# Entry
Amino acid sequence: MKNNHYILIVAGGTGTRLYPRSREAKPKQFQKIFGNKTLLEQTYLRSKKIVGKNNIFISTNEKYVNITKKFLPEINSKQIISEPCKKNTAPAISLAVAKIYQSDPSAIIASIHSDHIVLKEDAFKDVINLAFDSIEIEKDIIFTIGIKPTHAHTGYGYIEKGKLKKEIDNFKIFWAEKFVEKPNHQTAEKYFKTGRFDWNAGYFIFDAKHYLDELKKYALKLSKGINKIVKDKNNLKTIYEKFESEPVDTVIMERTDKIAVIPVDLGWSDVGSWDSVSQLFENDTDDGDGNYFEGLVSLVDTKNSMVLNESGNKLIATIGLEDIIVVSSEDAILIVKKGKSEEVKQIVEELKEKRKHHLV
# Structure
């Protein structure tokens, strides 16, 4: 572990597609979706295998600072960099990078997400360390992790691999040719068959100074605002509120001249929908009909379904259903056909429009 290697865990999202488990007050990174620890705790423990605990920083919204401290009591308050309002990942990551750079101008940072599942932790450790070591030599290159796709998926962005850059320790490093937003099914099928495309996990590893130079090059207004905040934290709310809400992918990563992708099988899921959660439990079915369930449940003539009941003593019973997902919380029940759970966020949007904020 090198003192100038840092991991930045981005933990400010709301995970609306995992409603009703993921809520505005307690989004999915603070939930136990898979395993006996929250997704944030799992991410933190993975990170501790790569860098020292003092070199792990959390970027989150100010209203999640206390819950972050609850789940990560080892983290010092100075390691939690909070944003006053949600402006997507470009402002959030840029602010965190600038603050880390302020205390360590030699910093090399891996920016990762707090709400993903990584089953192959050794591969994760190896690929992040490979990127760290590569940047020690070539500081003007940004590295990203390409997830080897297992099927055509329309819910992920893709990275097209270009020319092979080099091969190190059984890892092949390619120049990233282009980034592609979530495709339709036909396009996703084509990407999968070519073998040239990997899923974009949104993990980026870079030299902090180089990142800030690229920010200045491609987003001068954001760069100037971040510099003012770092110089005087009293400017934070006033300046931050004026930032555009933009992802770091489109602001820097899709525009920078030198970005390399390292394809790897991490046993990865972004846990972005209830369908992706269901897939995680495919090998853990509780009966002979392909069903997975938790809580007080009775399934009659029900097949290939997932039923998660958190509603205490209230029974969920199903009859004659197939390929269904049921998720129950104390105040809401979601019933959705498998393959349609990407649309769950529409329910959250509708609740907001109807001002039923107590249910969001």
Summary: The two ends are 41 Å apart (CA to CA). The mean pLDDT is 95. The first helix runs from residue 39 to 48.
